[in-house]
């Protein structure tokens, strides 16, 4: 059966960067069948919901899903459950992609694009494994209401044993293919869910972590260490919220958030969801100047993790490196290439 890649371009710069990833997929893996669908604000505008049952169904049947970005000022007044971001969360939950892999590595050509000194980021290569379908993002109860005359807003940070164990297992497996070190982060000094996270990761390590060195760090200290000495990390294991925040910080170490891809994985044999770490960038949307590399590298991860095309993935990764070596730069990297011209540079280097 033919492999299918479902593209969900979404909003803002999403369609601009996904269009470039599509050109590269067509050139590199012509045997993969490419389909497109709507998600986020684009889906809300067309169907009144940010994720239709039909799109979720198509995503479940695809070999892999590549999403651009969702959201934008146009939908800030929309009801929360209809907002673009709700569509993305429903897609992650619907595909049960519980492990979000967010690599942060510094291409040699970009050491000077980082906000940190060259010696701090040269050779940087870390992987954040973020739990993606639980925690405070989904915990109940949550709401904004009034009790005893007091207006309040609240969320629930909650993790269960299987949720922590399955994502810890992935972090250990990934560490084994790297430098064998996992740093698990939480706030066990103040949060019960954080203490539980630490206990569960420790138990999982005893059972599943052979050959892996496990360390624990408070999430705030981790944020500090990420900008002080990022090369100390190999794999960072974090819950949904801390992983979200720490991965944005890690993104900037590499030069631009426009460079960083992610892979979200569920049970073996189920489709992975691939997306740039960046959002819809309303401030530059429609100008054709967004960096398409995060989307292109998300395609690279899809080739590697879902489509079993490791050689094509290696070729694509090398081509992005080569294009950067040759000086190809979008504006966020201090250059002046358009989104399309940046993708052309990658295509030429393939
Ligand atoms: P953002 O990532 O969209 O933008 C942050 C900054 O980075 C902006 O200055 C933007 O111009 C720049 N930037 C981002 N991607 C870039 C690229 N490829 N090339 C060049 N510059 C780039 O984050 P935000 O402004 O906080 O959020 C905007 C909207 O996107 C919100 O609605 C938010 O909810 C949504 N969002 C979606 C996702 C997603 O779909 N996965 C992720 C983050 C934010
Ligand atoms: C991300 C984004 C999303 C998140 C939003 C848009 C729902 O920030 O993918 O990092 O918080 O997970
Ligand atoms: Mn985020």
Write down the CATH topology of the largest domain. Isopropylmalate Dehydrogenase
Give the tally of β-strands. 12
The helix/strand class is: alpha/beta
Uncertain segments of ≥5 residues (pLDDT<50)?
none
Bound small-molecule species: nicotinamide-adenine-dinucleotide, 3-isopropylmalic acid, manganese (II) ion
Principal-axes geometry comes out as globular
Please tell me how large the radius of gyration is.
20 Å
Binding site for NAD(+): 72-85, 279-291
Cofactor: Mg(2+); Mn(2+)
Site (Important for catalysis): 137, 187
Domain Isopropylmalate dehydrogenase-like: 4-346
Please give the structural blueprint.
Layout: E1 4-10, H1 14-28, E2 33-36, H2 41-47, H3 53-61, E3 64-69, H4 84-95, E4 99-105, H5 118-121, E5 125-131, E6 143-147, E7 150-154, H6 161-176, E8 181-186, H7 192-208, E9 213-218, H8 219-228, E10 235-238, H9 240-253, E11 261-265, E12 272-276, H10 293-305, H11 310-325, H12 339-349
Parallel strand pairs: 1-2, 1-3, 3-12, 5-10, 8-9, 8-10
Antiparallel strand pairs: 4-5, 4-11, 6-7, 11-12
Helix pairs in contact: 1-10, 1-12, 6-7, 8-9, 10-11, 11-12
The protein binds nicotinamide-adenine-dinucleotide, 3-isopropylmalic acid and manganese (II) ion (MN).
